Each structure stands twice: as structure tokens, then as C-alpha cells.
Amino acid sequence: MDAAEALHATQLFADLPDHELRELVEMSELIDLPAGQLLIREGTDGDAFFVIVSGEVEVTKRSGDGALPLARLGPGGIVGEMAVIEGRPRNASVTAVGPVEVLRVPSDALLRVLERPASALVILRTVMQRLRSTEALLREREKLAGLGTLAAGLAHELNNPAAAAARSVRALADALTVSEAQADLMPRPPVDAAQPRSALERADRIEAVVALGADHEAATALVDAGWTAEALGALPPLVHRRLAAEASVHQLLGELGMAVGRISEVVASVKGYAYLDQAPMQRVDVRVGLGQTLVILRHRLGGIGVVSELADDLPEIEAYGSELNQVWTNLIDNAIDAMDGRGTLAISAARESQDGVRVSICDSGAGIAEEMRERLFEPFATNKPPGEGTGLGLHVSHTVVARHGGRIEVDSAPGRTCFTVILPGDRS
Questions:
Q1: Do 192 and 82 lie in a common domain?
Q2: How is the beta sheet containing 29-33 ordered, strand by strand?
Q3: pTM (2 decimals)?
Q4: Rounded Cα gap, residues 331 and 379, in angstroms
């Protein structure tokens, strides 16, 4: 890509006539930067902006004693233009990731372009569009933050009654066991009766008990408690009813215990997912976050099978745990959408180089359309029908991963699409 093509690839100058692009290039300067070279320092005056011709740069912002990664930009990317237009100091730093060639466009060159009404209108329209997109993105993120706060409140409110219900179920089960133990006259299920070996054998046993006069629900409870028609046949019908009542109580307690356990599991996953009452930056095991995300999205899986391959030696990484969980949510949610209720969701996590991690989320859907691949991480880019997607999920995910100093790779073909997130370990 030459300098003129690089300018034309930017959103800011995409609609400028060719002759004005060439004039802008003539007033500008091509600069080669080695890996690690600082291009823009945060807080300095904005006397020029830069267009990336080749290579890649990283945008960072000071945060405490460190630098917070914001984004990575490749050919056609533009940095520093808002400081020039607004006449304010730089609000971020830009560093070459590898060897980079950039076009330095001085502020007076931009002002000369702006002197022409038609060109000024094109650039003004582009700037306004970017501001509207940014404003809409911020509004959407505020909504997501509000939903996170609501989820946090619900988790706190549900946790106590769920825990109390679980304690009550255990206490009731213990009390019932003691009561039955004291009822010496009541017979117990035969200890040598084998459990049904199949659903068909279970159904046959239930029908045999029904033939003794029990209704189907009572017969089911008796069979599940270990009774057989042969053992019950030696007992009077009145005892059958008492035994059926006891078996039903135990069955209902088991179902209630499972339901309360499910509530507790979801509440624990929401609390862990949002990293409630924890520091925002901490040591994170991505396997835990992936598991919590699957619990929260389990209701959406339907007929989709899940295959997980999570390495045992996966290192913990320094990360914003709740933000990474948002990445897993976006990628898994998109994968589920791509399969229309049937297929296989494959999730793997492995060690990357020394202490980093590599997470892949793959689906067996139709794949990503060719025209969407180059726009995947742009804000509001979506191929979903109106009202079914904001087009922000992948953009937010890309921003979060870049903030952690990582990257997202995409490999898509009909029948298999994989998003791979590569995150570094210790970045100190």
C-alpha cells in the first residue's frame, strides 16, 4: 500500500478526490519506525497526525504507573487526527509494534485541505459520523454497565434466600430420615433389590406396581425408592399408601434440592462472572470464566453440543476478569447464533508461549460472509436482522483484548468458524 492508497483507506479521507489526496501526500512526509519506537507521546501538542502505510502500531493510555493498551491499528489506520482538529494535547501514546511506515501529515496541510468548502464538508461529515458512532457506543456501554449493576444486585438478593432454602431442604431430609428410623413398624425397601438396568425395565416395574392398585405417580415414587411389585405384594394396601407418601416426599425433596442447587450455581456464576467485591485487576484463571459463562448461557444452547478441551497446566494471567468474561460471552453468544439451535460448540484453552493463554471458541455454523470479514471488528458492523444485534459485541471484544495486550484471530469456512483470543501473561 502506497501513501495515497493509505490515505484513501482511512475513513477520514475516503471520499476526497484523487488530486486532493495526491496534494496531501506531497505536503506530507513518509517515516520509517523500528519496532518499539514511540510515534506519539500522550500529553504533547498535536501538530500532525499519522496514517499507517505498513506495519502495526499500539495505542496506549497512562493508567497509574503503567500503560493501558487501547487498540492496535494496521495499514490504513489513522492516529492523532482529533488532537489536530480540536487543537488539544494528545490523549494517548502510539508505539510501533514491529517495523512501521507512516505518513506524517502536518496540521497546516490539513488546514489547507479544509480551506476548500467541498473537502471541508467531506471531512466534517466524516468527523461528525465518528462522533455519533462514539456517542452511540458509549450509550450502549452504559446500558451494559447498567445491566451488570442489575445482575450484581440480583445475585446479592438471590444468594441469601437460595442458601436458606438449601439449608431447609437438608434439615427437612435429615428430620424425615430420623422420623422414619424411629418408625420401627414400617417396612423398608428390600436391600438386595437391584436398580432397573434400563428405562424399559423401570417402566415395566412401574406398571407392575400400578397393577397392585397404586396410581402412576405413587408407583413411580415407590420404584425409584427401591420397591418392587414382589416386595409390595406381601404388604397390606394401607401400608402401600404410607410407603408411597414417604417415597413421594423423598422424591420431591430431591427435586427441590436440585432446583435450589441450580439457583445457587447460577448465582455463584453471576457473582464470579461479574467479579463482585473483587479488585478489577487480578490473577485470573480463564477456565473458571469460561465455565461461568457457559452456565449463564446454558438456556440458549438448546440442541447444541459442547466440547471443552481446557489444559490442566493453564497459567493464571493478570487481567480485568469481568471484561474478559464479556469477551467470552460475546464470542459464545455469536457462535450459538451461527448454529441455529443445532451443531457443536468447541471451546479450548491452552498455554501460549511461556505464561500466556490461547482460547479458541469454534462453531459448526455456515461461516462468515466474505463481505463481513474485513469489517468484523468495526463498531455497528453486523449481518443480523435489524433489532437482533447492535454490531458492538466483536468491537467491544477486540477493544478489551487489545487493552490486555492481546489479539483476536479469525478463521472461517463453511462448517467451522473459530475465534482465537491470545492473551499475554505477565506484562510488567
A1: no
A2: 29-33, 100-106, 48-54, 78-79
A3: 0.49
A4: 15
User: Which domain, by its residues, includes 293?
Assistant: 281-423
The beta-carbon contacts of 147-156 under 8 Å, at least 24 apart in sequence, are 148/274, 148/322, 151/270, 151/274, 152/270, 152/271, 152/274, 152/276, 154/270, 155/267, 155/270, 155/271, 155/274, 155/276, 156/276
CA–CA distance, 406 with 51 (Å, rounded to integer): 22
Q: Three cell numbers at 25? A: 501526500
Do residues 388 and 290 both lie within one domain?
yes
Which helix (H) or strand (E) segment holds residue 337: the answer is helix 321-339
CA 255 vs CA 33, 164, 261: distances in Å = 66, 16, 10
**Same-domain status, 261 and 297:** no
Q: Residues of the chain whose pLDDT is less than 50?
A: 386-387
Number of independent structural domains in the chain: 3
Residue that has been written with the C-alpha cell 492473551 in this structure: 423
**Phi, psi for 133 (deg, rounded to 5):** -65, -45
Cβ neighbours around 94 below 10 Å, total: 26
**R_g of the chain, CA atoms, integer Å:** 31
Q: Answer yes or no: are the C-beta atoms of 222 and 247 closer than 8 Å.
A: yes
CA nearest neighbour of 39 among 108, 104, 85: 104
pLDDT at 27: 85
**Cα(50)–Cα(44) distance, integer angstroms:** 15
Residues 289 and 179 in one domain: no
At 387 the pLDDT is: 44
